[in-house]
Amino acid sequence: MKFGVVIFPGSNCDHDTYHVVSKVIGQPVQFIWHRSTSLDDCDVVILPGGFSYGDYLRCGAIARFSPVMQAIKEFAARGGFVLGICNGFQILCESGLLPGVLLRNKDLRFICDFVSLRVEDNSSAFVGQYNKHQIIQLPIAHAEGNYFCTNDELTELERENRIVFRYCSEEGLVSSQFNPNGSISSIAGILNKEKNVLGIMPHPERISEDLLGGTDGRKLFSSLSLHIAGLEKLR
Amino acid sequence: MKEKDSHPKRDCFLDGLEARYKVFYLPSSLVYKMTEQINKEVVASHGLTEEEFERIKTLLGRTPNITELGIFSVMWSEHCSYKSSRVHLKRLPTKGDLVVQGPGENAGIIDIGEDWSVAFKIESHNHPSFIEPYQGAATGVGGILRDIFTMGARPLAILDSLRFGSVSKPLNKRLVSGVVKGISDYGNSFGCPTIGGETVFADCYSNNPLVNVFALGLVRRDQIFLAKAGGIGNSVIYVGAKTGRDGIHGATMASAEFDESTSEKRPTVQVGDPFYEKLLLEACLEAMRTGAIVGIQDMGAAGLTSSSCEMGARAGTGIDLELSLVPQRETGMNAYEIMLSESQERMLIVAEPGRERELIEIFNKWELDAVVIGKVTSSGHLRVFHHGQLVADIPNDALTNQAPAYNRPMKEVERQHPSSEELRSSFNLEKESVSEVFHRLIRSFNLCSRRWIYQQYDHMVRTNTVVLPGSDAAVIRLKETRKAVAMTLDGNGRYCHLNPKEGAKLIIAEACRNLVVSGARPVAATNCLNFASPERPEVMWSFSQIIDGMSEACKAFNTPITGGNVSFYNETEGQGIYPTPIIGMVGIVDEIKHLTTCGFKQSGDLILVLGQTREDLGGSEYLAEIHGKVVGDAPRLDIEKEKAVQKSCLEAIQSGLVTSAHDVSDGGLLVALAESAIAIQGSTQAAAQRTKPLGAKIDLNLEKGFESGISLAAALFGESPSRIILTVKEAMAEKIEEIAQKYSVVCTRIGTVGGSEFIVSVDGQVVLKEPVLQLYNSWLTRLDEALSEQ
What we know:
Largest sheet of chain B: 7 strands, mixed
CATH topology of chain A: Rossmann fold
Shape of chain A: globular
Oligomer: heterodimer
Strand content of chain B: 15-25%
């Protein structure tokens, strides 16, 4: 099993993500340069947080044209697992691997804070270690995390159980009051149709060690690693 | 002069490039003659005095041309030359066992053990931030980050100390929003967490906001880089962003007071690009690993001029530059403009000959320009060519070490402070009004939560932040070691205004205390000295006093100053700021398990106070906020007592006895206790504790732990130094008392943590009783409300 972490020149959570995969869940991991056209033999590719190419335009609008994204599209089409965190989520939407788009936060400011999330569905490879409707706390850090999609897309996301995380209160109540950025339907993370591509706005890698205040984020990485270990056994 | 007339063509690095650049050599005598533009007005408009101009002529042995005059003017500006402060700064302690690099480089460095060291420094960007708050603050962050990674260190933390006039004025609201957004956009994109600092509001900063930015980075002890242009024949490489016309004379602008025409100076503010800076960081660190870099300096204030002549001066070498090779983003720039541009995100590198290609390829990989623009020479001069024509020829020493240094006139400010008797009789309060006063304080702009600010900063990126904003100090773990580093920024303009020397000592003591309560040993400091015009004798006197106070305290606490920055001329239309030195103190947490934060942790814990509360109302937040007065003398610091309190606290923490610790400072004892009840952001210990404030029942007995006969105002809201609030498990309280006794420190049990209410009684009478959640909410949202009001 191998994880890959993509480095765009403006990525800044690349080292953090690498650290969690290698040191916290103890899995092999390598960096992948943005100009790379191959993903070697990675089973999971992570698009980390940051500001891919400065992102002075819409976040991720330039990254979608990078060589590595062409490779990732093919990888995803073959069933490879792709996890986009924060800027990674924005890039996945811009690349068309996920529906919708991430707009400026409703109050137009960058927000760095802890939020509560409800795990809406735990059937995919990314979140198998969470319980359904479990409330977890993850940090957010973004200025453009306001998820938006058409009504048709929203209906489809709901019908196909592709909404994985919603912002909520500590008790699990989903309402606009507990929605930090104005996302439609309080969406914090979604899957593609085939459920091998996940985009999530909060940062699981920032809350994967006790020393940093909790481990709610760790299960995202360990779920994937257990899933792939299971697949390897079957092979 | 004669030999100079024959152009030293042979040792010009342009040999062989003539054909390419159609270089034509003018006889160098010509450059010395191009002086017809130089007259009194031109000299004055460069911010140089007549005496300084005479000194330039003596040093050069001739009249400078316009480019040379420009170069002198920025290098001899207050900002670059420290001409008014140098004679005083010498008195600061700068050496210590752990100091690897003291003042004089881009940043100071201290040894933290296990083969690692940390580089850190604080710098001001006050003037640009007033003219253009967003870019001014952003480029302040950019500048200090470059200072850190120039040393080979990866920046891991940013803290900032901000001063504004009251946010009830629209101008100040705009400044706060602009500055915070500038810091936020730059730091967030660059990927270095902004994890702490302080924000203070007072009228004197209304037209003179202060933006001081601190950064710290980690570097292996054996991989430190210095800004020295060593090795005759080495190549000088320009890397990073292209040069434009922005920021020309920024350093000179920052060395003058403001008047009504200030907004016309907007073009002198640089424009920042954090993405470029990120590329520059990664490329520089990668290039440093090749071993081909001999010296490196960022182009900050005075751009290409300061980076080249300072690197030469440090190594005792000369530097030749050909400006036509400098990457430019505007056409038709002349030598004057290229040399004085303060375009951001640029570096100057001195590299071993023959290895230029290797370095250039690394920078190209990061899509950055990297061009050989010059050579290190033996001349000791900065020689600037433009299309092969010599346009400036100045000894590096004349620009740096021989810059003027003034011992400016000083005049003591004599203050007739009201005595503490007078203060208490005028400003004491009744038990009945405690609740109202307390609420006004906790919701005052200086004491309310800073959430509106720190939420806009990514304070978690790099996953090292183990104490989030909102505690006494910011703390990051160092993944490469078993340790953590604690940092704090402290200043107190009011105290320094009332009593500069005592004020400076109090700041150092508080900074050390903030680290100690976090479980760290204070080890070294950096300072940013913000003052009004040095040409006013009263200002210079307070500067000198502050250096003396700082010096005395830093020696006593064994925390040498490893570098810093002086910012004079913080005055507009004759209205100056309080003398406002800011100290950035760094401490080491030897073991992560010693980490302690200020928030109460568990119901049933006992609350203790180390140190005695005295009749100290002078200069307090209470007098300023409640009575609108900045009067009285600053509290007296007893350094030995302070050290004893800190020793007791650190020993208690390191013995594992303490569940929370908090320094008592602005707002006094009652505010500090309330902060411990409602500070839920500071801790990363467990997610559950982040979201719920915790009540407490406080029983104060004015006979115990207080100076006898103390007034109620001073007991609750006075700001005596050398006090710390601790909480401990009940069974451990005696052990803490034993430790305190060992150091002859007063230790008083004052209450118990728990419940949903914050209840305070004095001598058996309840003076304050409130649901802690309500208290929390009114404290938390104050700044949000003020800044979102139109």
